[in-house]
Amino acid sequence: MIRPLRCAAPLAAALLALAASPLRAELKVVGTTEDLATLAREVGGDKVKVEALARGYQDPHFVEAKPSFIFILAKADLLVAVGRELEIGWLPPLVTQSRNARIQPGAEGYLDASLTARILEIPQGPVTRAMGDVHPSGNPHYWLDPGNGRKVAKAIETKLAQLAPADAAYFAGRYADFDRRLTEAEKRWDAAMAPYRGLKIVTYHRSWANFTDRFQLEVIGYVEPKPGVPPSPQHTLDLMAEMKRLGVKVLLVEPYFDLKTPNSIGRETGAQVVVMPPSVGGEKEITDYIKLFDHDVALFTKAVAAAGGR
Ligand SMILES: [Zn+2]
What we know:
By secondary structure, the protein is of the alpha/beta class. The protein has helices at residues 2-20, 34-44, 67-74, 91-97, 146-163, 168-193, 209-214, 233-246, 260-269, 289-307; strands at residues 27-31, 48-52, 78-81, 110-112, 200-203, 218-222, 250-253, 272-275. The strands form two sheets. It has a four-stranded parallel β-sheet, with helices on one face. Strands 6-5-7-8 form a four-stranded parallel β-sheet, sandwiched between helices. Strand 5, helix 7 (209-214) and strand 6 form a beta-alpha-beta unit. Helix 2 packs across helix 5 and helix 8 (233-246) runs parallel beside helix 9. The longest helix has 26 residues, at 168-193. The N and C termini lie far apart (81 Å).
């Protein structure tokens, strides 16, 4: 009985010292998606510990809410969310159940990454989720324009500096380095995509609004009649007629959708069906934000060439 007590005293003292040590002040950051998590890693470096909730190969609108997410959220100092109602179907109850006051919406440790991003397709008239549309607050897939990636990284830098002012210069340096590497990469992507400006394509979901805006592709239709609504036979027939009329050669599909309808559209119209990941983690080799565009730009240009698109 005496021995554990003798050991416990110095152990407790050591734990107290550890708790008080500034070396321990690593911020715990949670990104709702791998895209946000990788941007937080770029800026936070080794001063932060970052985890993602949704995996890059999952549909970010419909993520299975695992109990483990609650434990991750309970310990977080900062939660970075995509916003624009992308996570509305799964995130809010998890944040409530985490009972973590730091990361509740409106608290200092909650960052809505969409607030500084350029958002497209903001509805003009009334749109509700009851109509089946999962984009009632504008297009939430805005990270697919590298310009928005830069804006989100900047917002994360500002927030991290607010939460850990002693490390503000470190975060500013990390952001500047990311900004420089992203600017270099953008020149590469713009050059690779330049020959395809004005190319008419079709996509399954409205995931690519910012991507196609950035690289000046023209989306003439979607396999989904509305974002979040599965294809119907009549809509598919109308879409195929339009694709034939306009000579559309490329159909982009996110990896989490069934290929049955896209493949039959491809057979009927001669368009190439390209499964293109919209997120970091969508393929094993897509391990960071810059690699996401490297991968997708290479995939897209190769597919268009194979389809004889240009
Ligand atoms: Zn969507």
